[in-house]
Amino acid sequence: MLLLIGIVIGLLLGLTGAGGSVFAVPLLILLGDVSIHQAVTLSLAAVATITLYGSVRNLGNQTILWKPAA
User: Fold this and answer.
1) pLDDT tens-digit profile of 37-58?
2) Contacts of 27 (CB under 8 A, 6+ apart)
3) What's the rounded Cα separation, in Å, for the pair 68 and 4?
């Protein structure tokens, strides 16, 4: 079920460009049988991981504005 929720969230993000937590937390709580605290933690961990990956990936081409990011 969690894999299906992840696929749905990925499709919604691809179509709308909205923030992942907007979709992830309610779907994890309602369909994934996950507590509120676990859903928020999981969503935050996913966003942090994706942000870190994107930052590391773009280190070489100077597209990160470090002052605003800090």
Assistant:
1) 998 898 888 778 877 887 888 8
2) 5, 8, 9
3) 35
Residue with tokens 């966003």: 47
User: What percentage of the chain has pLDDT greater than the value 90?
Assistant: 6
Whose CA is closest to 51, among 43, 40, 60?
Answer: 43
**Distance of alpha carbon 23 from alpha carbon 11, whole angstroms:** 11
Alpha carbon 25 to its chain's center: 10
The answer to whether 9 and 24 have CB atoms below 8 angstroms apart is yes
User: Which two tokens mark 24?
Assistant: 């992830």
